[in-house]
Amino acid sequence: MASVLGTIYDSLSFGNVLLLLLLLLILHYLMVLYEFRNMPPGPRLTYLPVLGNAFSLDFKAEKLTDVFQSLREEYGRVFSLKIGKYKLVMASTPEAVKEMLVNKSADYAGRQQTSTAEARTLGGKDIVLGNYGPAWKLHRKLFTTALRQYLSDIPLIQRRVSTQAEKLVQFMEEQDGNPFDPADCFQRSVADVICGITFGEGYDTTNPHLNKLLKLNVDVLANLDDILLVTMLDFFPLVHYLPFKAYDRFIQPFMKMFDIIRIFLREREGNFDPEKPVKDFISGLLLAKHEAECNNDEERNALLSDDYFINDIEDMFAAGYETTSTTIKWAIAFLVNYSKYQEDIQRQLDEVLGERKPSLDDRPNLPLIHATIIETLRVGNVAPLAVPHVTLTDTTLCGYRVPKGTIVFADTESIHLDPKCWENPTVFNPYRHIDEDGKLITNQSNFYPFGAGRRFCAGEPLAKVELFLFLSWILHNFTFVAEEDGYPPSLKGMSCGVQFPAPYKIRAIKRK
To answer: Which residues does UniProt assign to the signal peptide (predicted)?
Structure first.
């Protein structure tokens, strides 16, 4: 043995060491090429052990979508790479996005299950981040059933949204034409609607627990640095064993949210009456559990635990207020910058409403409100990459191989701003959604603000109702102008999953 080791040692000349390293390097890249065989093009020579193509990303980018910009320019709009232990594919063409979200929805219905996601969702027990399977299907159905039942009661939904819209108008009147940041009042108004849907009649953010819940959600999204750091570190599972404080800072607010939700759940469990009509989301969840217990359905009952319910309720609350309030912020920012459209909307509101208040019955007669919402969603891109999908089986995309377990991004922002899909795509123009007869163009192609397929946003119908009523109310009552003449809100987006406009102040001038 000693003689063998001695022989090896004697042969380790400088030239032989270099030759060995060269052979190992060639072997490494052959393995990389085999691993990515028949997959979309991407950076292969910059692939490093453990790190993958991490250094191919643009870490100086201000927006999440821009992190991949240089790769998109070099390899095209469908490309692949590897970060840490995960393969990634970016789908940025209309054909690719439609194929993954619609045509092969079942293949791409998974979610990335990282240790952070597991901790943040009590073991993957939520709808947004939960993996596709029996539990997800059950809770998704409970979620959509609750929303459908709520939206079917037109007088109820109109009363609840209009009540909050009226409070919003009152708040703006109190500003007396002085500059103010509308972010908080938009968030609170929409959150109060969601509180009624989720927790029941009479619940809103004046309740100290729900006010704290809203603040925790807002603070999580405002913590951009930790979100981006944790997102990147999640691609390297071993890093979780290192003492990064960002993990604790990111996870702890969710544990506090769950503690608050648990208080309401315990309270409702104590006085739940299955004979009473279901009028809110929590009651619907408790009724499903009661029925499973009555039917001795142990398998279903196991999927209706408190941990699942807590995640369902947080999903309803957070997803319900954030994207809708952010869309309203974008809409007002655009309309201050493009005041002509604001004038046209107000002219149409005056013609249809006169002095009375807006209602859902007015929707067919106010196409410009709808067109403004659609255009805001297209240009503002509240969810530019949506939530990443994961392939549940070996599949293909645009003829390329996509192995099981690959993370696939639907770059919907690229589709919304694609000059091949939209004329002058970066220009805000609601009239592109109005036909020659003045009617709204529905069922737009190449338009994915709420995703599509199995994992489309279940809250889309509610969001559209809220956006219509809130915008109709405030635009009927006020003209919005810049904080200072000549300095309208910036239209540069800031992104950490949700893309929102940079903070701005406006003045709300009461219309006569």
So the answer is: none
